[in-house]
Amino acid sequence: QGKFTLLRDTRTDGSFLVHHFLSFYLRAGCKVCFVALLQSFSHYNIVAQKLGVSLTAAKERGQLVFLEGLKSCLDLLFGEEEEQSGQPSPLQFISESASNLKALFDFVRTSLTPAGSDSWKGPVLLVDDLSVLLSLGATPVAVLDFIHYCRVAVCSQLKGNIVVLVHSNEDSEDEENELVANSLCHHSDLILWVEGLATGFCKDVHGQIKIIKRVSLELTAEQDVVQIYQYKIQDKNVTFFARGLSAAVL
């Protein structure tokens, strides 16, 4: 509880980790606020069904609060956004001159603050993917402020967890995105860094994952624990193995 997990991908797609955490927390009985900026609800629902979880059922019972970023953006841009109960759209900053993510933070806080009848185990904020906010016009400072306030509200006050995906590319000229990704690395309790293979595509090894446990954050003068595995994504699960020890090699 109270942990911030950063999912970072370079030269590959790390979205399989988002699907894992989404189904994991729903099965565990947690209240989940999913800020989905990259794909539609039906996309996440189809993958979740393969993993044995129904997002539609989770929404109906109030366990999952789903913000469909693609739809909200279109509604805002074409003026079809209806204010719900007098509240502005969570992505209101798109149509305003000020890059202010306060409306998005208010949406998250309202969604995860427990009501009297709630019996969920703990709140979870899941964001896929933070880089999209920069593409929509938010400044790096606004995005980092948003994450900071979410950490205070969700991790510190509500004793919940936050899982955030951010794309990165060392060779990219997108300095704002790299600034956000590197800044979040310094604040994370756990970093799952997915990278494509330096040697290129391989049908038996899809990439490698670096698991960094930030022991140094606890001020114990210990080094961070780093583990590196390679992985292969299958239809319903992912297999991990030590580098160079895939079944194809052996």
Automatic annotation (TrEMBL):
One Pfam family here: ELP6
GO biological process, one term: tRNA wobble uridine modification
Pathway: tRNA modification; 5-methoxycarbonylmethyl-2-thiouridine-tRNA biosynthesis
Listed InterPro entries: ELP6 (IPR018627), P-loop_NTPase (IPR027417)
Cellular component GO terms, alphabetical: cytoplasm; elongator holoenzyme complex; nucleus
UniProt-annotated location(s): Cytoplasm; Nucleus
Record key words, sorted: Cytoplasm, Nucleus, tRNA processing
Principal cellular location given in the protein's record: cytoplasm
Chain segments annotated as transmembrane: none
Highest taxon of the lineage: Eukaryota
Keyword Cytoplasm: yes
Family the UniProt entry places it in: Belongs to the ELP6 family.
Descriptive protein name: Elongator complex protein 6
